[in-house]
Specification:
With 465 residues, this protein is mainly α. It is 64% helix and 4% strand. It is built from 21 helices and 4 strands. The protein has helices at residues 3-6, 19-39, 45-57, 62-72, 76-89, 105-141, 161-186, 205-216, 230-256, 272-275, 292-301, 304-313, 325-352, 358-366, 374-385, 387-404, 408-413, 416-419, 423-435, 439-442, 444-456, and strands spanning 146-151, 154-160, 264-265, 355-356. The chain has a two-stranded antiparallel ribbon. The longest helix is centred in the first third of the chain and has 37 residues, at 105-141. The protein is elongated. Residues 282-286 and 459-465 have low confidence and may be disordered.
Length: 465
């Protein structure tokens, strides 16, 4: 990946699925295979020891390996040749005839991808858990902080900042749990041999696989999954779903941080102190503070749907070994995890220093002149005038409230239909109309829902009733 492709990703993303680690994972496969087969008596113990030592001391040239593999389309041929050369250099050339016994290229590459995915999943889950904790605390702190809910990008009703954060929180929690559960099954050894039946290892094949899986810390599946990729791809597709949830958070935060809205703002970035500059500056407009973390998250998530589609398209793999589909999957799989880790890290950074402007949230509600309380106002008015008449008066006076910057409850209280009521009923209705726009009352349903979600989460942040 070139430098520009990395520009918006965190530095830690650059170490995921790097060539050196992938080569090391393939060597670890060969070492574990030799040791497991020796323990089952399939190859001599001294040969297994020599293979393991050669693999431990060998540093593969990734470019040379892929260049050599391109000719025949199989990574194992040049890999075995390179390990064989290392054995010969150590004076253990005889052990080479026991190297890679009963395995195939896909066994090596799939298992290496599994090992790399396991390594990538750990920092992803850690960053995701940090984002979850930050959202949970925001939800608890702001369960009763009123803000505008928006539908089709227009003011709709009053919700709370806490409920909005809780709404973002739940999908992240579900993805965290699903990734862990799916990983327990998907991070499994691949060892099937030429056609998936481990025929070269006879009756010892299953025991060799179990020993290998234990040595590598992986699950031991029943048989091969060479062309049965459902369990593996479910893990990847859950990462893609997570990216969608992260992109939604990033877009919402970015919209709320617009100067015209000004309800939230990203705080200082993790590298601001070292850089000596504030994150989000503009080369042409010094006054700007762009929502950079949100931008990074959205950019990181943008390729993910295409990657997910490619993964699904690769499932129709022919017979016992794919002709191109598996190879296409292997090419895009690492990028999926790099992008999702980048998005997760960016959302965590955005939330870590997030500035919540509660007064501006209340002011933006006030700017609607009470129109966002139209449902409650209609209910209050309907008690005296009936549903149809109440709705008609709201529809007639709403535009006037905006045009004259007069609160809708005031217009309703002064409306002829209200003034015509008997004094006691009129006074009660006017009080009810003003009460219908009370923010504490308006935010109650959102606060109640927020607390319910937090309780169901099984955690009780400070301040939770």
């Amino acid at each position: 990946m070139n430098a520009f492709a990395h520009a918006l990703l965190p530095a830690a993303a650059r170490g995921l699925f790097d060539d050196a680690a992938l080569c090391r994972a393939m060597l670890d496969f060969e070492s574990a295979l030799a040791r497991a087969q020796a323990e089952e008596g399939l190859i001599p113990a001294d040969a297994a020891e020599a293979i393991a030592d050669a693999c431990a001391g060998l540093v593969l040239d990734a470019q040379a390996l892929t260049d050599a593999a391109r000719h025949g389309g199989a990574m194992a041929v040049p890999l075995v040749a390179m390990v064989t050369q290392a054995l010969q250099a150590r004076g253990a050339g005889d052990a080479a005839r026991h190297l890679h016994k009963g395995a195939t290229t896909q066994d090596v590459v799939d298992t290496a991808q599994v090992l790399m995915t396991r390594a990538a999943l750990a920092p992803l889950l850690a960053a995701l858990q940090e984002a979850i904790a930050l959202l949970r605390q925001q939800a608890a702190d702001h369960a009763r902080t009123p803000m505008l809910a928006r539908t089709l990008l227009q003011p709709a009703q009053v919700t709370s900042w806490g409920l909005k954060c809780a709404g973002w929180l739940l999908p992240l929690q579900r993805s965290h749990a699903r990734l862990q559960a799916l990983a327990a099954q998907a991070l499994a050894l691949q060892l099937g041999g030429a056609v998936g039946n481990r025929s070269a290892m006879g009756e010892a094949g299953e025991r060799v696989a179990a020993r290998m899986a234990a040595l590598l810390g992986l699950a031991a599946p029943v048989g091969s999954w060479h062309t049965q990729r459902d369990t593996w791809l479910r893990l990847g597709l859950e990462a893609a779903v997570l990216a969608g949830s992260l992109a939604k958070i990033a877009k919402d935060l970015a919209l709320l941080s617009q100067a015209e809205v000004d309800e939230v703002a990203e705080g200082p970035g993790p590298g601001d102190a070292a850089q000596g500059t504030a994150r989000g500056g503009s080369s042409a407009m010094p006054h700007k503070r762009n929502p950079v973390a949100c931008m990074q998250a959205i950019a990181a998530c943008a390729p993910v749907p295409g990657i997910a589609a490619t993964l699904l398209a690769t499932m129709a793999q022919a017979h016992e070994r794919a002709l191109g589909e598996w190879q296409a999957e292997v090419a895009v799989w690492p990028q999926l995890w790099i992008q999702v880790f980048g998005a997760t890290s960016a959302i965590r950074d955005a939330l870590a220093g997030l500035r919540v402007n509660a007064p501006r949230m209340a002011a933006n509600i006030g700017r609607t002149q009470g129109l966002v309380h139209s449902e409650s106002l209609t209910q209050a008015l309907a008690e005296a005038l009936g549903p149809q008449a109440a709705r008609a008066r709201i529809q007639a006076l709403g535009p006037q409230a905006v045009a004259t910057q007069t609160p809708l409850p005031d217009l309703l209280c002064a409306d002829a239909s209200v003034l015509a009521l008997p004094p006691e009923r009129r006074a009660a209705l006017q009080a009810a109309l003003h009460a219908a726009c009370d923010l504490d009352r308006a935010v109650e349903a959102s606060a109640r829902q927020c607390w319910q979600w937090l309780r169901e989460d099984g955690d009780h942040p400070a301040g939770l009733p």
